[in-house]
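User:
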Amino acid sequence: MLAGKIAAMKVRLTIRLMAWYLIGSALLFVNFAVIAANAVTENPEQVIQKLQSSLLQVMREGEKLGYEGRFKFLEPVIDQSHDTETIIKTILGATYWSQLDSEQKKLVVDTFRQLSIATYAGRFTHHDGEQFEVIEQRDLPHEQMLVRSQLTKSDGGIVNFDYVLQQNEGHWRIVNILFDGVSELAVIRGEYRAIMQREGFQALIELLKEKIVQAKQN
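Assistant: Predicted structure:
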């Protein structure tokens, strides 16, 4: 009789443990599903809208923030919207990039990153009624996307911004910007490569640092 009760208790305990296991597994699955849903990447247009919204905000608060405040505000924004490493690799080209060791690559990426943020902080300093508008998003070759947008200035003038984006670890990031049809990469590629060819890597780093100082003074 006692043995039967013990056996029944064991059965009930086993059922309870199985039930808790199934509930725990279900909750774990739900958590993974929530994480996966939250990890869905923003599409290219959303990346640009977020960037431009941040630029308008920093322009409105530009004088109050000052250069250092604008730099600090924009730092995470640029990190989340620009693929800095791919940009500088494209500028230098495969030949020059392959000649750099790991420490040099890290240094040039970090210095170019600082220059990118400094350039935004130095240019977007105040707001005078300017507005951004995304015009279209379309596919490009090599699995890239183009987002076309316009900045309407206070005098009614239009500046066209075309952003080229590609995915990096599942996230869309800017790899080139065209201002009124002129590629930013094309403008600076020749300058940076010429410095590398004539004077070497350290001269390029010094050039980037000089440009950071100039951006701060603008």
